[in-house]
């Protein structure tokens, strides 16, 4: 069974990471985030969908994809959304040395700097962390995790099941994870407008991290 919502004990054990936004609990805000882009056509679909619902979001971009699709990255920013670091090459913290992982993060930051993109923070690929991320990186940048993982990249899930999980778990303050990637798109194109519509019906306002 796919776990869409982080067990309550996990944020308690790892309080230096950002799992939700208490400000949103007070003002009925939710936080749509998108990992692994920017990707030609798919990120543009997401931007159009967000505009349709007058929603703001945060995109955790892979550096190499920003290099490949610079105009889309700039369009994300021009549309009033935030961009965060997702490493240069979607680096897995459990498979990299600390030095190599840190360099992968820095390489992505340098790409952002060259394009005058200000990073709002960092999300570790796969949600995998190590002691360096937890003890050191949290001192210098916000590390964003999530309240609700859509699983749109999982081919074993249906769009309908993801939508139902979102309706069950999304509440004010929730940080939601989607993916503007080729792998996720068959489900994302159905799930995203449905959950944006659900949030509108509930008067949940999608805002920036």
UniProtKB/TrEMBL annotation:
Keywords: Hydrolase, Metal-binding. PROSITE patterns: NODB. The keyword Lyase does not apply. InterPro entries: Glyco_hydro/deAcase_b/a-brl, NODB_dom, Polysacc_deacetylase_ArnD. Residues 28-207 form the NodB homology domain. PANTHER family: CHITIN DEACETYLASE 1-RELATED, GLYCOSYL TRANSFERASE-RELATED. This is Polysaccharide deacetylase family protein.
């Amino acid at each position: 069974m796919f776990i869409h919502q982080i067990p309550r004990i996990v944020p308690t054990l790892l309080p230096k990471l950002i799992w939700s936004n208490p400000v949103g609990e007070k003002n009925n805000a939710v936080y749509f985030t998108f990992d692994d882009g920017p990707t030609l056509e798919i990120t543009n679909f997401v931007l159009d969908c967000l505009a349709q619902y007058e929603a703001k979001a945060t995109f955790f971009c892979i550096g190499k994809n920003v290099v490949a699709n610079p105009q889309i990255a700039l369009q994300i920013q021009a549309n009033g959304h935030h961009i965060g670091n997702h490493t240069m090459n979607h680096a897995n913290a459990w498979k990299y040395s600390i030095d190599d992982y840190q360099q992968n993060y820095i390489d992505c930051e340098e790409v952002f700097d060259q394009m005058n993109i200000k990073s709002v923070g960092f999300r570790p690929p796969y949600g995998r962390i190590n002691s360096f991320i937890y003890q050191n990186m949290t001192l210098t940048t916000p590390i964003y995790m999530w309240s609700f993982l859509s699983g749109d990249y999982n081919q074993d899930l249906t769009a309908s099941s993801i939508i139902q999980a979102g309706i069950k778990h999304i509440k004010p303050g929730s940080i939601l994870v989607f993916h503007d990637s080729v792998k996720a798109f068959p489900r994302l194109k159905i799930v995203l407008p449905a959950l944006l519509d659900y949030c509108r019906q509930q008067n949940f306002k999608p805002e920036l991290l």
